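Q: Hand in one record:
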Amino acid sequence: MAIFLNKDSKVIVQGMTGATGMKHTKLMLGDGTNIVGGVNPRKAGTEVDFDGTSVPVFGSVKEAMEKTGANVSVLFVPPAFSKAAVVEAIDAEIPLAVVITEGIAVHDSAAFWAYAKAKGNKTRIIGPNCPGLITPGQSNAGIIPGDITKPGRIGLVSKSGTLTYQMMYELRDIGFSSAVGIGGDPVIGTTHIDALEAFEADPDTDLIVMIGEIGGDAEERAADYIKANVTKPVVGYVAGFTAPEGKTMGHAGAIVSGSSGTAQAKKEALEAAGVKVGKTPTETAELARELLAG
């Protein structure tokens, strides 16, 4: 089992023919991802060769879905054009759109989030400004390195890309059912709560690791959700314990004002919901290890 992405997922890449899209399409193919096409209106009808694997380029998401049965799109589209690309994916009703692009204006993210909702949430958005998601041994949609872990029974949801990779490496001997990088921007599609709900329902996930960071109240809301709805053990980590008050740190969403949004406040909210919270990623991994050992 897995959440959102599995071996049967048929993936297209919007922006595949750009430098970043080419690089990561090659890597995703190497991880076993079933990439069935790229999208670029100016290069429609051509094919791109990736070490002997020929991937066709289509003029639109709709055409790619009709010709290939694609149900996932990964977007490597420059910030200025990302809103139009996500709207195109939503209009085509692709079930999953993974928006990797960093630097999308918050106004644009809010607009395509609202557009997806108005269209009935037929398209799940992951991101923007995220590393995507991976189900080890099955499929990889995004930029998460495919060789740092193996299939296992831990579910991971994280705001931070680099901390996603570190946690996967720390627990590589146990392995992961799926790892989802949701991004740290102020407006994102899939939230901690969405991933927690999916992992709770996944019979092959025994424990959930949740990584948050300073700013906003997403972790506090996730804590409330865990308390009311999650029966599986959850281990947490909140990045930013040493961040100075009033400063913007890292992601655009990581802004602290007063006691709201601090790492300590988030840690306390999670612990009140029964979540064991580590002070470092390594300590968090050890907590997960202890819980799984029983």
In short: The longest strand covers residues 151-158. The longest helix spans residues 79-91. The CA atoms of residues 150 and 247 lie 37 Å apart.
